[in-house]
Design goal:
Length: 159
């Protein structure tokens, strides 16, 4: 049973890592869940309760920040709500047609196109598209860093 739980936890950690890029999968919470699975499998010995509490707090904060950072980047560069939504749509389309780089390009192109649709001139639309793109990339980078650290600790304590 222990080996099964450890393998399940590793799979959950890997899905959590993928979830940092795929917008439909909650990456940081799944990564944290992997730590809980490993802790349970090993009778709560690998990680201290303080470590688990800190990681839980970080997972919650990153989940919230994931919604705030792209919007902040968009607002800072003058993007509209349409630009933000088109960025998300572009990211999803790009992800399915040209993974993983299509996601990056799709987010930028979607935001740019969305800004053009709402009537912004080329330079202003380009700037707003860039803001949405930067905001999305910062959010993804933060989530990847967190989930990567969790995967490191998971593998370190797995054996």
């Amino acid at each position: 049973m222990t080996i099964t739980l450890i393998i399940l936890g590793l799979l959950v950690a890997l899905v959590g890592l993928a979830g940092c890029i795929l917008p439909v999968i909650p990456g940081p919470p799944l990564s944290f869940l992997a730590l809980l699975i490993l802790s349970y499998a090993k009778n709560w010995e690998p990680f201290s309760s303080a470590f688990l509490i800190i990681m839980a707090g970080l997972a919650i904060v990153l989940t919230i920040v994931d919604y705030v950072v792209p919007a902040a980047g968009a607002k800072r560069y003058g993007a509209s709500k349409v630009g933000v939504w088109c960025s998300i749509i572009g990211m999803l389309i790009g992800l399915f047609f040209f993974p993983p780089w299509g996601m990056l390009i799709g987010a930028f192109v979607g935001a740019f196109a969305g800004e053009l649709v709402v009537g912004k001139e080329g330079k202003k639309a380009l700037r707003a598209g860039w803001g949405v793109f930067i905001g999305n990339m910062v959010g993804i980078g933060l989530k990847l860093a967190f989930s990567g650290v969790i995967l490191f600790f998971y593998v370190k304590e797995m054996f």
